[in-house]
Specification:
The protein is of the alpha+beta class. Helices cover 35% and strands 21% of the residues. Strands 8, 9, 10, 11, 12, 13 and 16 form a 7-stranded mixed beta sheet that branches. Strands 26, 27, 28, 29, 30 and 31 form a 6-stranded mixed beta sheet that branches. The two termini are 59 Å apart. It binds one RNA strand through helix 7, helix 10, strand 17, strand 18 and helix 17.
RNA sequence: GCGGGCGUGGCGGAACUGGCAGACGCGCCGGAUUUAGGUUCCGGUGACGCAAGUCGUGGGGGUUCAAAUCCCUCCGCCCGCACCA
């Protein structure tokens, strides 16, 4: 073995491209659009990337996880579809165009070329022939066809909605472009402005989107819970309040409430600043108008509205209570959302915390109407905490004495009987506004004609292409400004008409790309046989930040596509399995001036302090945070692959922690992973000359050491397999570290041990192959020359008989405290185990001759002796 | 504000259905090898204690023979909130 000891190091830079080419030549990862049925199908998909410039560690993590699944499932005998594409429309391309004068298309396609190259270096088992970008008319033209089919099916509507309006730039701003209520470029105070926009009718599927969550048993429970809350089904009542004196044709206000039982505890009625009645009031009351104007600068995000200080304006109007005949003041309140319910509420401060704070602030009455159980009505008062739980009704006329659920039923009956209200089911979910006043998106394929109204673009005229020559230096909607693009003849009457200049929300692009991947070159949006055979996606992997919107929109889209004949997916569910990965984080660094520094600019010294690489100036090490360009705590995957190879990056990313949690990228961790690749290579290359040939006959007998090694081998196969099935990749890595150590420790001689060593090494290589595919091929070519590619081998099965242990270790507790362990034959009977336990030296000392009251024995695990 | 999640040694984490807390890796300490080392190999490493042992899974309380795991409560951090993707 001495001449082997100086075997050259494993050189990933040389080996990795070689194996990537070998897989490519062998066509290892290709599957037909329509499966031939010889193997069961498995569709693995990672959320496709936005082509922002370079790949980042979040991508590396995402695609490594997916690749492990894809390679593992392929070895398990599945026909695995594993495609890749580009979520290529979006705001950053327009920003780049404005800032650097690059056309969005040029910027996007250049980024795609760069990122494709980076992904290819990772050695992912992707089928690149399915690649597409959503900004390609060959993709978005089909999306326009889907839009038209949805329009024909009544799933598209035009409605008014609020946008963030920059009054200086005359531009609609995205939420992220509004900073502290001001436009990010102009600095002007942003206003809420109503625009007529296109909506997809997701609420038509609200019931099914909610109910079907229960069938998604391979989704994280928390994602299902978040979607459930987002859809927000609630039962309640609509109640109409007559205005004491009508105003501008309004003679009543309708409110929605989930607590109709508390109607007798009413103290005020509050209108949204965006309510039609508010507008009527503001038209004649300058103070009300001023208050509404103030509210309009709060922006359009729910978080902003909800966290703002609760404020109101007393309109001086009053409404009449439906039952007790009293009148109550009408306020305009900044926390009442027009988008939910009816845009008006009745306030019951005793039993709603927000109402209570509002009432205390403005000196409104607080009447308790629900009495907590076991409390005397005389002794019950509401101070600064509203009572929101169930109890018994008081001060409530015909509801007195009823429990909350019965009171709800009773008052709804009464409201319906008297025609003053009705029980309703209310949804929080709103229709999906897809209109965007931007250039770099999919044009909405309709034409506005003065005579014919809204006319769909005939399908044979699709795609409606974006014009190339746009002026992005002007604020506002570039398509609207374009000198010629929007002017067309009406397809119906031929008169001069205008194209719709809004483009679609980029979430539309990502709501059906997984279906397009199944037949990416089809002349229609989907090829039914391909889509029906491959969908649903068996395993979808991506960030938790998409837990609601992207996933919900996709679930809507597959239902709408099914109902317009584009899919046969009966369940309507696009993703049978979902895994949400955590973020990749890194330490942050700042110099004495407080400027952020890249990790490559910082050197760590042995005493733990950090200095600037170039100047030696001290550097402050800050918190571990999500990698971001602004904080410069990013690590370039390309540089890591240059230095250590793709396998090392993949191995570290899998080993650090459970994939659903945030991970910290550390230089020490990568170096540790790299050492392991070299260690495995040494282990294999040093052992090969001593091993029997690949496929040699099994020896008839095995020594104790050989048996022990085989037991470890078969246990490891079982453990790694179980870990891969449950996404416990860090556990699989730990078991493989242990396995490699166990192989190195089995130093004995003999042909039986040599055979067991070959069995172990072959297993090691095949078990880590999904994670480090290049190193696996390199080792395999040494272990089993001419035996093909690991990528084409089937998975290993473990032999339970070989994995079984002869003895088990039992922990022995006395009074719940560990006092010793005993080794007993596997399957020993209880009497034997207890006798051995009580005889154990340390245990006997702890018992000290006292009588044992109770003996608890959990076979194979523990004995607890209670004195 | 609302909804969801997380919290275990110096660090990342492991721990099956409530059954030996700290697997495995990083770091650190000691030793060996090497001309050299960001090399390799061996040993050690939760805290306190000479030891027996005691304490220990964000804080406090509870259930149980037995709790990281179940229940109550408090604290801290993270994600989403509909025009970022």
């Amino acid at each position: 073995m001495d001449q082997i000891a100086d075997t050259a190091r494993y050189d990933p830079a040389q080996a990795e491209p070689r194996w990537q080419q070998a897989w490519e030549r062998a066509g290892c990862f290709a599957v037909p659009d329509v499966p031939d049925g010889t193997r069961p199908k498995y569709y693995v998909l990672e959320m496709f990337p936005y082509p922002s410039g370079r790949i980042h560690m979040g991508h590396v993590r995402n695609y490594t996880l997916g690749d492990v699944v894809a390679r593992y499932k392929r070895a398990r005998g599945f026909a695995v579809m594993h495609p890749m594409g580009w979520d290529a429309f979006g705001l950053p391309a327009e920003n780049a165009a404005r800032e650097r004068g690059i056309h969005p298309a040029t910027w996007t396609w250049d980024n795609i070329a760069t990122m494709r190259g980076e992904l290819k270096r990772m050695g992912l088992s992707l089928e690149w022939s399915r690649e597409f970008a959503t900004c390609d008319p060959a993709y978005y033209g089909h999306q326009q066809a889907l839009f038209l089919d949805f329009l024909a099916a009544g799933l598209v509507e035009r409605k008014e909605a609020f946008v963030n309006w920059d009054p200086v730039d005359h531009t609609v701003l995205a939420n992220e472009q509004v900073i502290d209520g001001r436009g990010w470029r102009s600095g002007a105070v942003v206003e809420r402005k109503k625009l007529s926009q296109w909506f997809l009718s997701i609420t038509k599927y609200a019931d099914d989107l909610l109910a079907a969550l229960d069938t998604l048993d391979r989704w994280p429970e928390r994602v299902r819970t978040m979607q459930r809350n987002w859809i927000g089904r609630s039962e309640g009542a609509r109640v109409r309040f007559a205005l004491a004196s009508p105003i501008d044709g309004h003679d009543s206000v309708e409110v929605f409430t989930t607590r109709p039982d508390t109607l007798f505890g009413m103290s005020f009625l509050a209108l949204s600043p965006d309510h039609p009645l508010t507008a009527a009031i503001a038209a004649r009351d300058p103070k009300a108008a001023a208050f509404v104007q103030e509210c309009s600068t709060l922006g359009t995000t729910e978080a902003a509205l909800e966290t703002a200080e609760k404020r109101g304006h007393d309109t001086g109007l009053t409404v009449r209570h439906p039952f007790n005949g009293r009148t109550y003041p009408v306020w305009i309140a900044n926390f009442v959302l027009m988008e939910y319910g009816t845009g008006a509420i009745f306030g019951c401060p005793a039993h709603d915390q927000r109402d209570l704070e509002f009432a205390r602030k403005y000196g409104l009455s607080v009447t308790p109407v629900v009495l907590p159980k076991g409390i005397d009505a005389a002794g019950f008062a509401v101070a600064d905490t509203a009572f929101t739980e169930d109890g018994t009704l008081i001060n409530s006329d015909f509801l007195d004495g009823l429990e909350v659920p019965a009171a709800k039923r009773r008052i709804i009956e009464e409201l319906e009987r008297t025609g003053q209200g009705t029980g309703v089911v209310q949804w929080r979910l709103r229709d999906w506004g897809v209109s965007r006043q931007r250039y770099w998106g999919c044009p909405i394929p309709v034409i506005h004609c003065d005579a014919c109204g809204i006319v769909p673009v005939p399908k044979d005229q699709l795609p409606v292409r974006l014009p190339d020559d746009v002026d992005l230096s002007r604020p506002g909607n570039p398509l609207d400004h374009h000198p010629t693009w929007k002017h067309v003849a009406c397809p119906r009457c031929g008169a001069p008409a205008r194209r719709e200049t809004d483009t679609m929300d980029t979430f539309v692009d990502s709501s059906w790309y997984f279906a397009r991947f199944t037949a990416p070159h089809a002349a229609t949006p989907t090829h039914r046989a391909a889509a029906d055979a491959w969908l649903p996606v068996d395993q979808y992997i991506g960030g938790i930040e998409h837990a609601i919107l992207h996933l919900l929109y996709s679930r809507f889209f597959t239902r709408a596509m099914r109902d317009t004949g584009h899919l046969g997916l009966a369940s309507g569910e696009p993703f049978a399995g979902l895994f949400t990965q955590g973020m990749v984080k890194h330490e942050t660094y700042r110099d004495a001036q407080g400027r952020w520094l890249y990790p490559t600019e910082v050197a760590k010294r042995p005493d733990g302090t950090a200095v600037h690489v170039g100047t030696g100036a001290p550097v402050t090490v800050g918190a571990v945070e999500a990698m971001s360009k602004s904080k410069r705590n990013t690590v370039d995957p390309g540089a890591i692959i240059d230095r250590y190879g793709a396998d090392t990056a993949r191995w570290f990313i899998l080993s650090d922690n459970p994939p659903e949690r945030d991970m910290e990228w550390t230089e020490a961790g990568v170096a540790g992973a790299y050492r392991f690749t070299q260690r495995v290579w040494r282990l294999v290359s040093a052992a090969v000359p001593t091993l029997p040939p690949h496929g040699a006959a099994v020896p008839t007998t095995f020594s104790g050491e050989a048996r022990a090694l085989r037991r470890t081998t078969h246990r490891t196969i079982a453990a790694v397999t179980a870990a891969l099935e449950t996404f416990a990749f860090n556990v699989a890595v730990a078991r493989l570290y242990e396995f490699a150590s166990a192989i190195a420790d089995a130093k004995g001689e003999g042909t039986d041990l040599a055979w067991a060593r070959r069995e172990a090494l072959e297993a090691l290589v095949r078990l880590f192959a999904p994670a480090m595919p290049h190193l696996a091929e390199e080792c395999w070519s040494l272990l089993a020359p001419g035996a093909g590619l690991v990528a084409q081998l089937s998975w290993l099965d473990h032999d339970p008989a070989l994995a079984a242990a002869d003895t088990v270790t039992i922990a022995v507790q006395v009074m719940g405290r560990l006092r010793g362990t005993i080794e007993v034959p596997a399957g020993a009977d209880e009497a034997t185990v207890l006798a051995a336990a009580e005889a154990e030296e340390n245990v006997a000392r702890a018992i000290a001759g006292r009588p044992i009251r109770k003996r608890i024995h959990v076979p194979g695990k523990i004995v607890n002796l209670v004195l």
